[in-house]
Structure formats: C-alpha cells, structure tokens
Amino acid sequence: MHHVPRTTTRIALILVTITAVLLAGLALAQERRFVVAQSSSVNSWDPPADWASEAEWIVMNTYDCLVFPDRETGEVVGWLAESWELLDEVTWRLNLRQGVTFHNGDPFTAEDAAFSIDRILAASRQEFIVFDQWQFVERTEVVDDHTLDIVTRNPDPAFLSRLSGTGCGVVNKSYVEEFGNEHLANNAMGTGPFVVVDYDRASFVRMVANDDYWGGRPEIDELIFRAIPESSTRVAELLTGGVDLALSVLPQDWARIENTDNLSMLHYTTDRVWGLTVAHAPAASVDAVATSIPEVREAINLAIDREELNDLVGGFGVPTLTRLTPPIPCYDRVADQLYDVNPFDPERARELLASVGYPDVPGAELTLHSAQGQGVAHRDIAETVASMLEDVGFIVRLDIRDLTNFRETVYQDNPGGIMLQTLGNFTTDPWLFVLNYDSQFETRSMPRNRFSDEMLDTMAVQIATEMDPDARCDLVAEYALRVREINASVELLHQPESLGIRADVSWTPPTDGKFMMLNVSYR
Amino acid sequence: MSAATEGLRPGGFRRAMKQLRRSPVGMIGTFMVVSVVLVALLAPLLAPHDPGQHNRRERFQPPVWMDGGNATYLLGTDQLGRDVLSRLLYGSRISVAVGVASVIIGGALGALFGLLAGLYGGRVDTIISRAIDTFLALPFLILVLAVIGILGPSLLTIILVLGFTGWATYARVVRGETMAMREREFVGAALALGASRLRVAAKHVFPNITASVIVLATLDVAATILAESSLSFLGLGVQPPAVTWGLMISSGRDYLSSAWWLAVFPGLCISYTVLGVIFLGDFLRDVLDPKIDT
Amino acid sequence: MTTYIARRLLQMIPVLLGISVIVFLLIRLGGDPVLQLVPEYFTEEQIAEVRADYGFDRPIVMQYLEFVSRAVRGDFGYSFHNRQPAWDMVTDRLPRTVQLAVAAVLLSIVVSLPLGIIAALKRNTIIDVFVTGLSVWGRSLPNFWLGIMLILLFAVNLGWFPVSGTGDFSNRPFLAHLFLPAFTLAFGLITTLTRLIRSAMLEVMREDHVRTARSKGQRERRVIARHVLRNALIPVVTVLGLQVGWLLGGAVIIEEVFAWPGMGRLMLSSIMARDNAVVQAALFVSALIIMASNLLVDITYTFLDPRIRYA
User: Fold this and answer.
1) Complex ipTM value
2) Cβ-proximal residues to A93 (8 Å cutoff; 6+ apart), any chain
C-alpha cells in the first residue's frame, strides 16, 4: 500500500466521492417531495388535545383511527378495526387489524386501542378538548390482543361515526406511559401513513413515508406542511414552484393559477359552515343584549344576503340556514327549506326591528366578534356581515381579533352578542350537529350562546338513542327546523375550499372535507 | 443667548420665514407636512365617499386611469367595494394623531427627566441615567409590541405606549445639554446667587434646549408614524373599522397580484408623510443648529 | 484594555437589573397574571392552586427575586401554549434571526460603502444627487411595504428569488432565500450608512493629512483606502452598533413578511397568543444582544481609532 503514489489514491478517492455524490443526488432528485401550504400548523401531536381543522389535518396524516370515513363514499369503514359486531344493545366487539406497528416498531394491540379511549374518558375538557364528544363510551374491555369491546352509555345509532370523531387517533400505550402526555404533545407516535421527522410549531412539519404502512406505502416520499398565514404568499409560492399545493386561495388569484402551466384549481365544499352565534341572554359582564329578543335575531337572519357573501368566496359556497349540510345523513329531509336558500329581506328586517322598538331597547348596541386568519376571506365576511346589519338599522361594532386572542377572550362568553365562526361537522352522522344545541351539555362546541330550549333538549335525547334510521331522520329534521325557528344560531354559508395544486398529481378531496395526503398519486 | 434659539423668539419669526424661503428642502417639507395635516383635519370634507361604506356591487374597481376604472372611485375600490381614496384621506388622521400625540408625551417626559437629571445631578442623575441606559438597551419596537400585546390595542394605548417608550432619547439629549448649560457662567452665577433650580430651569436652561427638543421631536414624528404603521400592519395597531394606512397594506396584501392599488397607495402615503416630516426636521436642524447628533 | 472591558461590564449590571425589572413587570401590566393564564371556567380554588403553583401568591419582591435567580440560569418558565421551556424556544429560533441580521449588516456595508464613496467623490454631480436622494427617500419607506413590493417584483413577477421561507424544502439555495429578506432589512441601514459614509468621506478629505498625502502625489485610490476609509469607518461602526435594536425590531416585521422562522416571528406569535414566558425570554435575549453589541462597538473603536483611550 505504501508504494502506491499518493496522488493516485487521492484521484481515486475524489472520483469515488464524486460518483457517490452524483448517485446520492440522483436518488434525492427522484425523492418525491410534496409541499403543502396552509395557513396554520400543529398545536399538539396528541390527537384529542386539539380540534383546529388545519392542525387536525396534519396530525391525522401520522395517526390511524379504529374506523374512518371512506374518502369516496363517506361511509364509515374499517381502518385499524377490520370488522365489528353488536353483541347486545350497547356492546360493540371490534376485531382489530394484525401486523400493524407503531412508528417506533411496537406492535399495535387492543391495549393501545383501549388506552387511547380510556385516557380521554379519564381526563377533563381542559386536558382534552374533545372530552365531551367521547362521553358516549361507558367503558372499554380488552378481550384479547386483537379484540376490543366498547360499551356505550346508551344504545347508540351514531356509534361508528362518533368512533371516527376528533381525537380518534390511536396512540402507543407503552410509549405514552413511559414518556407522558407532555412528551406526546411534542413527539407524535402513531401508526399512520407518514412518520414525523422534524417540525417547528410556527413554520413547518416534515414527514416521510411510512415504509411499513399496513395500507401500502404512500406515493409521496417526503411530505411537508408549511404554515403560511397570508393567502398572497401561499399563492406566490405556488406560482413560483415553492409549494405543490396551496390551501384557501382567494378568488382573485384563481385565473392566474389556472393560466399557469402545471397548476390547477380544485373547488369543493367542506364540512364547515359559516354561522353567527347569537347570544340568547346577556353575558355575565353586560346588563342586557338585544339579541335576547326573538325578533331581533330574526331580523339578523333576514338582513343578510347570503348570495353576496358567496360572491366574496368566489361562488363555490352554498347559502344555508342550517349546519345539517350534505352529505350528512338526513340533510335531504330539510334541504328544500334550509339549504341553498337565501331569505334575504331587508324590508322585513327593518319592520321587525321597528316592531320591538329597536334601537330603544336595552343592549341595542351589538358587537360582532370575529377572528382573523381563519380560512379564506373570513375577515371580509365579518366586515360584510357588519355592514349588512347596519344597512337594516342595527348598531354594530366590529371587533376583529387574532385567532388565539379571540379564543382566549371573547370566544368563551360572546359578550357583544354576535360572533362569526366557522364550525366543522362530521359528515357521517348528524350527532355533532345535534350535540351543539343540546343545552344539557354545558361545554358544547357552540360557545355560550346561552340558550336552552326544552323541546330541543328532549329531542336530543331521543335522537341519541333512536336506532331506526328512518325514524331518527324524522327527528333530526324536526330538530333542524326548530333550531332555525328560534334562531338558536344564524347560519350563513356552507364553506367551500378552493385550493391550487400541481396538475401532475391526482388527489381527490375527501367527501368529509378533511385533508389527508395518503391518496396523492403522481401521473 | 445662543443664536440657535433666536429663530424661536417672536422677533425671529420673520427671520425663520426668510430662511424657509431660501431653503427648497424646508419649503417642500413644510408643504408636505401642512398638506397631510390639512387632509387629516378636513378628511370628512375632502373624502368623496364614506370610508366605511361598502359598495358591494363595485368591488375591486381599478383606479380611474386603468381599464374599467371610473371617475366615481378615483383610486379604485377594495375587496369590499370601499373607496380607496376616501380611506387614504381618513387614514391620515390616525398617523397624524399618533405621530403628534406620542411625540408630545415622549418629548415632555424625556425633557422633564433630562432636566431633572441635569440640574440636580448626584443620585437623581444616577437613577435617571441608568433608566435611560436601560430603555436604550431595549429593542424599541419589540418592547412596544409586547406592551400592546398585553394591554390590548386601542388608539389611546398605542399613543401612550409609543410615547412612554420613546422618552429616553430626549432625556439623554436634554440631560447632556442641561449639564453643559450648568457649566456656563450665567447659569452658574444664577445658581450661586441663590435662584431656585426651577427658576433657573425655566428662565435659562429650558429656552436654550428647546431647539434640540424641537428637532429631535420632528424627526421622532417620522419614526413614530412608521412605528404606528408597522403596528397596524402586524395587527397590533388601531383596530378596524378604524382606517389606517398600515391596516390597508396588511389587508391589501392578500390581493396584491390582482389589485395592486390596495397595498401600493397607502405605502406611498406613509412615505410621503414621513418624507415631509424628515425634510422639515432636516431644515429645522440646519436653521436651529442645536448641538446634537441626529 | 482588560480593565476597560471589565469597567464596561460592571456598568452593564445596573442596566441588566433595570431590564429585568421591566421584563418582570411587563406581564403584570395587564392585571393579575394568574387570571390571564387560566381558562375562565376555573373555580376560585383552582385559580388559587395555579397561583400557588406559579408562586404568584408570594410578595412581589420575593417573586422578583425568584424571577431574577431563575432568569440568570436561563429559566423563564414554560411556554403556556407549547409546553416547552421558553428559553429553549427562543434560543432555537435565534440563529435564524442572527443569520438575517448578519446578512443585512454585511449587505448594507457592501452596498453603502461604494455608494457613499462614489457620491462623495462625485460631489454635486447627478450621481451624487441621485444617491443622496435615494437614501433620503429610503428613510421614509415602511420596511414591511418595501418587502411586499420586492416580493411582488423579484419573486412573483421576475422569479429571481424565492417568495418566502428559508429554503429547507425548496430546490433553491439558502442564499437565494436569504437575499430578499436580508436586503429588505438592510435597506434602512443602507440609506443611513450611505449618507454617513458620504459626509464622513467629505469631512476627512478636507483634513490636513489627507491633503498632504494628496499633494505628495500619492495615488488617489491609495489615499482613499488608507486615510479616508479608515476614518470614515468609525461613524459606520457606531451606527451599526446603535442600530442593533432597530435591526431586531425590523426582524420581527421582515420575518413576518417573508415567513422566516426566526425569533421575531416567534415573538410576534407569542405576543398574539399572550404566551408571556416566551415574550419575556425573547425580550431579555434581545436586550442582551443589544448590550453585547454596544460593548463590541466600544471595543472596536479602540482598534479603529487609537486616539480613543481606554480610561
């Protein structure tokens, strides 16, 4: 060896290095990296800890649930649970998939499935925001490694839908027991199609394909989510090739994206509805609020030109008077009265206000609370609604806050009387829609509009246990009409999503409006 | 009596005007500042439309000289069909109000503490000087953002916070000048003769430092207007439906590629105003010639 | 020299104390910090529990001492939203901001030196008027607006630079990502420095030893390099030192405009979310940086100008 001239060795080494680098470069070039730009990022990697839509979308790319809505049909289908049967009125036996492993190699068993539900039940709403939504479970029983019994509190027609609800991601029991909840919040550990390798809460999440995914390895090798709050920046990144998919694109930019090679727009309706939460009684901090008067609430309902709001988002939304929107089962029973209708009647609104002596009523001055940075055109909708209310004679102050600030201040008690929100839903069953107006749930997701209606409360109980689908839909329809009649809340627009995407990949938006990247395929 | 303050005396007014006429920068600056202040005062008379009025059928109208523009909306309309020109006119009010009010607060506080430190010396001076050092070591904008984040944004908070955090620069300058003044014979003599410090301050020191404070304050108005627009842009300024230039840029940013006029015009307005103030400040500095380094 | 630095360090102690008081009092401006921390449905007992947990039930002086003793160890408590130590979050992001600030400083020197020198050498020519005019106009431009315009022009329309981010997930080099935000941040500095360098040049060129050197027939370039530049650098260093606070403030805005994941953006989102521990930590770190850079400037002086004594 000593006799080989040094220069030769060096040259050989250099050549080898160059070849290696080139090969590595080629391999890298073939890596399929897919970058998604949305307005916000994750808050916690613990599935039941957060229900903000965009955060949930990211988190659910790395976790699996026991059951999940099918992307094409919207039916609840088996996921980590392969099949199930109803043993008695309240006991569901789930047969779990075998050979599934967590990202750290631990095998998935019934213990993990049971633990994932039990820890929610044992917690509080402060700890897990979805706490209330899981109260339908009485207890879980592990039968063997791959068989789990779930006992519900009541006979539950919505069982499968609820089981696929927010927080359904199955966590690794031994991992959580060893490292604790706080660690899980910062370090995901699921069985899902993508493995989190790096993230920064404010700016990005980097995932790679799970090679051992039981459902088949995703076509994307590296999945990046970037948090870009401004629509203009998301669009600019898309146009210049910085990202492959940009969510929530404003109508003004659609043509530009369509006219760019290899980019196209995709429009679909989501599981969310823009609505006004109106206070039925004053908050503790104020003496009176005019929205306690039924006529005032009806005047709000009539003052709003929903078609015009739809114009703001480019026309792909649907004016609605209910959150029972398609494809939620039973929606068709009320669709002709409540969906795709625009009861805009400013004259009648003025008459109603005059009939109760507005503005000479206590609490006549209303505040419209709204957050900004909550999806496309949210702030524009807020400003337009305020202006429409003013047009019929309302005294409205507009109070727009940053999302976090909004959640921590006015969200809890809606002191000004009106709050603009987009609320999500589950498209596989109307149970969440019903839960929202059931005043027996202190902490329902519709924040403190402080109303209770005996009729609705009674019906909510009936709906929760009615096992006959047809009879249940009748009840749901009646419920929806009652919600509308008393203006429990004032719904505005079924929210569309308009996203720009690379044209050389195919990705179908799921029927539930959620956003998961397992089914991206390259053309 | 220094030549510096002569321009401030009643008799010096004519002289100041004469100097102004000889200085193109001064003339232009004065004109720009006066025009902005007039617009702010007369906005309701000048604005062709209500700045908050949504003309919802006429959203995204381009400025009049572009295809599709019309004379009803000279500078076009925004995403809610509001008249951009009227909003620009009204937007000047917040800028002027915050710029002037904050600087008066900061200048008054700073001058007061600077005078105290300079006149009394000793322990008073030590404490005030350390406080000045402390404030100068804090990043101004970050401090302002943090305080407003905690107190919540409103016109009054913003004026107060920008004012209270800006005092240190004035205090440093005034303290220095007061100290220098104490060395001067006539002040030293007055003090030796038993005149009260307050009297000395009012009679001898204050008139002599006014020039510095005025020049500092003018240039500070420019910085404050920029700071206010930054706050607005970041969402921590005066909240809608109030109209500010920073807010207009922030919301116009989303429509930049299709409706550039929404973000471009307010930026030009800020620049115009600040430039005017800077010109005026530079002119005043040249005329009043205070011994400070701005 | 050592004594000089030691003295300067000693002088920093009261300032540090002052900063700690301000940072400590900051979160108490908004009223009871416990009420800002807990959800509103908490009962009196629960609130009292949190109060005790965080030590807010003790006398304020004790709280302050506790705060200082922990801050010295870099312990600002946990981020309420992210369940991570606030200090770690800030120091994780700090390098990104430092990259931006350093690039801005370098860029501003590289751009303003030739501009300032040319303007001075070609005094009262159209070049001078143009450079001076531009530098005055530049002072009046809000940097967030400038950033937006630069993105529109150079990133969206011309495609020369990427739109945002640090390039971790793009095929373009890091420097391409760094350029626009660094330039936007540098812009204010460039205008200030150009004017300073120009006037410093003019002043020095009038000085005797420069005239002498010239009259001795030394080449113009050599004169400029040896005498003029060296003296002109002193005000530049001063301004750079004084502008560190301004740079950090500007970084908040620039990072927001360019989606640059630095300390400024963290600071802003923490302010919005009222995540006080992070705000306190970031403010403290910023103040430390400013003080350190001021010290650095003072030391640099002594090298640049032997006339300044250490005493």
Assistant:
1) 0.88
2) A84, A85, A86, A87, A143, A147, A148, A149
Distance (Å, whole) CA A113 – CA A171: 7
Which class is C93-274 in CATH?
Answer: mainly alpha
Among candidates B226, B270, B275 on the partner chain, residue whose Cβ is nearest the Cβ of C137: B275
Give the per-residue pLDDT at B6: 45
Residue A267, amino acid: H
Determine contact, residues B38/B30, Cβ cutoff 8 Å: no
With H, G, I as helix, E, B as strand and everything else as coil, classify residue B188: helix
Q: Are A396 and A367 in contact (CB under 8 A)?
A: yes
Residues 12-51, chain C, touching A (beta carbon < 8 A): 39-41
pLDDT tens-digit map of A177-228: 999 998 999 899 999 999 999 998 778 999 999 999 999 999 999 999 998 8
- List chain C domain ranges: 93-274
- Does B84 reside within a domain? yes
Domain encompassing residue B9:
3-288
Measured distance CA(A498)–CA(B204) in Å, rounded:
70
Please list the helix, strand and coil fractions of chain A in percent, rounded to the nearest 5, in that order.
35, 25, 40
Asked if the structure places residue B293 within a domain, the reply is: no
Half-sphere CA count of A520, side-chain side, radius 13 A: 25
pLDDT at A442: 54
Rg for chain A, CA atoms, rounded: 26
Q: Collapsing DSSP states into helix, strand and coil, what is residue B52? A: coil
List chain B residues with CB under 8 Å of C153: none
Chain B's closest residue to A236, CA to CA, is B257
By Cβ distance, the residue of C92, C155, C261 closest to A240 is: C155
Nearest to B39 by CA among B99, B98, B91, B104: B91
Q: How many domains does chain B have?
A: 1
Cβ-based burial of C56 (10 A; exposed 0-12, middle 13-18, buried ≥19): middle
Measured distance CA(B133)–CA(B216) in Å, rounded = 18
Question: Do the domain assignments include residue B66?
Answer: yes
What's the CATH number where B194 sits?
1.10.3720.10
Written as six digits, the tokens of C242 are 């004084």
Please provide the size of chain C in residues: 311
- Asked whether the beta carbons of A274 and A421 are under 8 A apart, the reply is yes
Q: What is the pLDDT of residues A225-240, one digit of tens each?
A: 998 888 888 999 999 8
Q: What confidence tier does A246 reach under pLDDT thresholds 50, 70, 90? A: very high
**Which residues from B are below 8 Å from A398, CB to CB?**
240-241
Q: For C186-198, b where at least 16 C-beta lie within 10 A, e where not — what string?
A: bbbbbbbbbbbbb
Interface of A to C at Cβ within 8 Å reads 33, 35, 43, 126, 182, 185-186, 200-204, 206, 224, 226-228, 233, 236-237, 239-240, 242, 402, 404-405, 408, 412-413, 443
Q: Give me B265's structure tokens.
A: 């015009």
Q: Which residue has the tokens 């003599």?
A: B189
DSSP category for residue B115: H
Contacts of B253 in chain A (CB under 8 A): 230, 232
Question: What tokens appear for A147 in the block?
Answer: 């068989």
State pTM to two decimals. 0.85
Average pLDDT over residues C213-221: 68
Residues 6+ away with beta carbon under 8 Å from C36: C27, C30, C274, C276
pLDDT of residue A444: 47
Kindly indicate the confidence band of residue A30, based on its pLDDT and cuts at 50, 70 and 90: low
